[in-house]
Design a protein that fits this description.
The chain is α/β, with parallel strands linked by helices and 412 residues long. The protein is 43% helix and 15% strand. The chain contains 14 helices and ten strands. Strands 1, 2, 3, 4, 5, 6, 7, 8, 9 and 10 form a ten-stranded mixed sheet that branches. The radius of gyration is 26 Å and the shape is elongated.
Length: 412
């Protein structure tokens, strides 16, 4: 039953795998699995995707009654929330087929011991079941298929920061590490990205460091350009009306803030739920606050395992992840105090798994000015260039702006 649900879960994540089903339908024992396979196969043949919306009505001919329809829908959502990995799709099928063969042989032996079949029938059935193998597809690519793969254009994320968009070249399914020392503005920069991307994408912000009110106040402030200190008591009627206007505008954006402690399992479950129908942009603030998978793990072990899991989630599910991390104090020892990738706190896996590593740096971190010159250091980039982009950060309204006339400084 577990492998049946894993197979269905993979198909919900990647419906085109229905073409790679190699086990016979009779290997699926549960009626829920068999009906689910019919629904997925039908939807993929018609719309090349799977939607769970309206299934009970659309496929009512498959169900005996309303209770069975609801049971199938619940079953599909259960399968979707599993930790199934599409890369293990063939393995799940092999395990299911082996279990099917074993149970069929045991049932035949039982029939023999009950004198329902002869020894000749038993041997014939065992031989018949042992001949069952998976009808695997040929995984080799021909020239045309290979050419299409290398020419396929990856979907790039476009930001209001033009130089950042061009140089970082962040693409869908990336795991982007965003790191800085405390107080530099990494949460503010993440919220600027969320505010921008939520016009087009469904965005999720896992907030584990501050209250929900603080997050929403920052978003309203960077949109309205009204200082945070005036949000509770606007100085003028004009400010009050503008706040209402920007709150209405924000409510039309496609984002969700999830506040509170998280484990990798709860994060994965929420991502799967939000990404089933469209690509989602996920912000996690921050990696060090995600609860451990196993008790007794060191911080290094915990962050290493979590980072690997998040990279796999970005590959297996329809999402891009921005993972916020911290910088240790080693950068204080360098001449210009700029952080290096090796300064990422808690685990080297952040550098290893990240598609890109972005680090924020402020030369004058202890200054009293509302506005600060922030350097965005692209320390690693599988898709584009490395180097430095200069920003101006207005802390009073939490807003980042690229410096128009600054040059992009490449690092060799």
């Amino acid at each position: 039953m577990e492998f049946e649900k894993n197979i269905i879960g993979c198909l919900l994540l990647k419906p085109e795998l229905i073409k790679d089903i190699c086990v016979p339908l009779e290997a699926f024992k549960s009626i829920e699995s068999k009906i689910s396979l019919k629904i997925i196969a039908d939807q993929f043949s018609r719309i090349k995707s799977v939607s769970l919306v309206g299934i009970a009505e659309t496929y009512k001919a498959l169900f005996k009654n309303k209770n069975e329809a609801n049971s199938i829908v619940d079953y599909l959502y259960d399968c979707m929330s599993l930790e199934a990995t599409t890369g293990h799709f063939e393995y799940y099928q092999e395990r299911l087929l082996n279990y099917y063969i074993e149970t069929q042989i045991l049932d035949s032996i039982k029939s023999y011991t009950q004198n329902k079949i002869s020894v000749e029938n038993l041997l014939e059935k065992i031989h018949e079941y042992e001949k069952i193998t998976m009808n695997k597809k040929n995984n080799y690519l021909n020239g045309d298929q290979l050419y299409k793969i290398i020419r396929k254009e990856n979907k790039k994320l476009e930001f209001r920061f033009k130089k950042f968009s061009y140089c970082a070249n962040i693409q869908e399914h990336d795991l982007v590490i965003l790191a800085a020392r405390p107080g530099i503005g990494k949460t503010a920069f993440a919220l600027n990205l969320l505010d921008n991307l939520s016009d087009k994408y469904n965005c999720i912000y896992f907030n584990m460091e501050m209250s929900e009110q603080q997050i929403y106040r920052r978003l309203v402030s960077l949109n309205s350009k009204i200082e945070i200190k005036y949000l509770e008591n606007p100085a003028t009627n004009f400010q009050d009306e503008k706040l209402k206007e920007k709150c209405n505008e924000l409510s039309r954006k496609k984002f969700k803030v999830i506040t509170g402690s998280q484990t990798i399992k709860t994060i994965r479950s929420q991502i799967i739920k939000e990404s089933i129908n469209s690509h989602s942009i996920v912000f996690i603030d921050y990696v060090g606050l995600i609860k451990g998978i196993q008790p007794g793990q060191s911080i290094y072990e915990r962050v290493t395992e979590i980072t690997k899991e998040l990279r796999q989630i970005a590959l297996d599910h329809d999402c891009t992840i921005f993972l916020i991390a911290q910088i240790n104090r080693n950068s204080d020892k360098t001449k210009d105090k700029r952080p290096l990738i090796s300064d990422l706190k808690e685990s080297g896996e952040l550098e290893q798994s990240g598609t890109a590593v972005l680090m924020l740096h402020n030369d004058n971190v202890f200054g009293d000015n509302k506005k600060a010159d922030i350097q965005l250091i692209i320390g690693k980039n599988r898709n584009g260039e490395v180097g430095i982009i200069n920003f101006e950060y207005d802390k009073s309204i939490q807003r980042f702006e690229e410096k128009v006339r600054s040059n992009y400084d490449r690092e060799n």
